[in-house]
Amino acid sequence: MSLNRNIAIVHYNTPELTRATILSIRKHTKGCDITVFDNSDKRPFPPMEGVRIIDNTKGQLIDFDAMIARYPDRIETACNWGSEKHIASVDYLFDVLPDGFVLMDSDVLVKTDIACFFDDEYAWAGMIEHNPPFRFMRERLFPFLLWINVPLLRKYGIRFWHEGMVYKLSHTGSPFYDTAGSLLKDCNDAGLIGKEICIDDFIEHFCAGSCGRKTRAQALSWLYGEHLALWKPAVYLVVIPYLASAAQGREIEYAIAGWRKHFKENYLVVLVGEGLPAMDAEDVYCLESKRVDAISGQYRQHLDYVSCFKKVHKEFPDTDGFIMVADDCFALNDFDISDVKLLKMLQPDVNFNPDSMNGWRRDKMKTKQTLQQAGLPTRNFTTHLPQWYDWDKVEALWEKYDMLHSSQVIEDLYYNTYCANRIPFRLDRDSDNFKLGVYGKDAETLALIAKAPEQKIWITNSPEGWCPELEVMLQIHYNIR
């Protein structure tokens, strides 16, 4: 075995995948020194604590255009997937990491300890592709997870780039040597011994994700779906239902900024709904969901909620639950999951005119009647604050009450059903530290807005409460202009 724990990753425009790869390494194998060789031309890898980044984003180390131009007889179908660029990058790393390293693609996730790959007794450790997909290709070593013993290879004059054996570039006739093909041949010719390990037992591979043949949406779906637990422990889904036609100003930008600044847990914001804004951020997952058809006598927004949440669960099947929060709820001070899960109510009962023209109020009374018929409390849980929902429990209610077609207030139904015997904390604007609700523009409310960052964890608003004073306060708090 080797005391050396160098790992090298060649990165190309896939920061979410590369970051997840690194996090999965750290979760399963301790003491690794990670180097990222960045060839991106659009989405470079951002600084990450404990990661060495070698910047080749402008061709300052390897000018690929000039490199390719040196081979006028190359096969023009080459360079589609970047094999020759990958080979050149790894060859460069021979000099950067002279003690040897484990080479990894940026589209793999480690699922168990890979310490057995670091082995000075062998020229390489990994898996041979014995049956390449094309008959004109030679066997090779899979570069997805591969120990490369650089000191031993140097003694025999072996490098990763072997002139005359680079896939469709310096080698223009069959058989072709793809990435790590020449390395395997050179080791065999020199009589060097490798250590064959089935890499499928150690990694999950998002095939072709590292070379740009998959979309960012596909990559995020792969990462945050069934593979989530491999790289990001205890991730909380923060689900924000969204409807562009009802959005006020830049409220969604402020809402997400609040989670970034103040939520002290691992999280992923899932923005779900119709007309989603364009967002390119690793902590935001956009999931388009068209509005459901209107049904006479039913409040469409509550039907939309169920449709949206069902879609989220289908996208993230391995999560235990989710945090539901409105797009006009803004964090002003630090909080964690215990603050979210604390049982909070507005009043011990719900009372509105059941014949109101307001669909939300009608649903409040409809849900109250449902609860009364079940012999349950009728507390008012529509706090306008983040709330936790277990998938199993909330789905049971959706099915029981056919909530995709018959609208109910999920907050009241869920918490009165599953927390019937608990005494909730009652919110009070004048005394609690949780919430300031802005529902108007009177002088008293405007004065409270200015004091909210010193007194409240969250501030929320109704359409009537959205005002310049609130927006300016949020811009200053989040340093957004």
Offer a concise description of the structure:
The protein is of the alpha/beta class and 481 residues long. The protein has helices at residues 15-28, 64-69, 83-96, 150-155, 181-190, 216-224, 228-231, 251-262, 300-315, 337-341, 359-373, 391-400, 410-418, 443-455, 468-478, and strands spanning 6-11, 33-38, 51-55, 101-104, 108-110, 124-126, 128-129, 140-141, 145-148, 194-196, 203-205, 236-243, 267-274, 284-288, 321-324, 329-331, 344-345, 387-390, 425-426, 435-438, 458-461. Helix 11 (359-373) packs parallel to helix 13 and helix 14 (443-455) packs parallel to helix 15.
What can you tell me about this protein's structure?
This protein is of the alpha/beta class and 481 residues long. It has two domains: 6-205, Alpha-Beta Complex (Spore Coat Polysaccharide Biosynthesis Protein SpsA, Chain A); 234-428, Spore Coat Polysaccharide Biosynthesis Protein SpsA, Chain A, CATH 3.90.550. Helices cover 32% and strands 18% of the residues. It contains 15 helices and 21 strands. The protein has helices at residues 15-28, 64-69, 83-96, 150-155, 181-190, 216-224, 228-231, 251-262, 300-315, 337-341, 359-373, 391-400, 410-418, 443-455, 468-478; strands at 6-11, 33-38, 51-55, 101-104, 108-110, 124-126, 128-129, 140-141, 145-148, 194-196, 203-205, 236-243, 267-274, 284-288, 321-324, 329-331, 344-345, 387-390, 425-426, 435-438, 458-461. Strand 1 (6-11), helix 1 (15-28) and strand 2 (33-38) form a beta-alpha-beta unit. The protein is elongated, with a radius of gyration of 28 Å.
